[in-house]
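Here is one chain, start to finish.
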Amino acid sequence: MKKIIVILLVLLPAIFTAETMFGQLNIGVKVGYNASKLSANIDSVTTSFKSGMQFGAFVRIGSKLYLQPELYYTTQGGVFTSNTQNWKQTVKIGSLDLPVLVGVKVLDLKLVNVRVLAGPEASFVINKSIEEGGVKNSLGPLSKGDLSSVNWSLQAGAGVDVWKFTLDIRYQVGLSQMVKEVKSYSFDSKNNVWVISLGFKII
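Its structure:
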């Protein structure tokens, strides 16, 4: 909770300053679906996608060129499967995500516009779990304590606005290691995510 308060205290002055500079402000809510995959730098371990969701809010400041900070809760993770030792682990993560994006409207009509956007994201993990799914009595090497609590990513994508609705498709590349070295496994694992979201501008 303290992290959230600090984030809001940092963002609010920036939002009001940017509104004064750019002259246009939108505030909205959003919900989305994601497919996330944790990489593994191990030949004997394969990874697969896990479905998740997100919901939260965004602020858009500016017109043709705009700044868009967001804050939302996300569920994501990934699946690790050993090809040699018969273990399988599903990582589930719930986090508060704070992307700060810069966007440009490449087509700007009265009720419809098309955008491209990109920017960094900070992710603060608030709950995490690992489920075993291999053969009986065959446990994987990961535990909850091996998962990083703060992760950094880069988002890029495109979006369409129709009236007050916004539709975005983004790809998120992990910049920091979510899992480093565990026992005899050097995971060097980063989070890569496809996201599709639908938002509505309240203001």
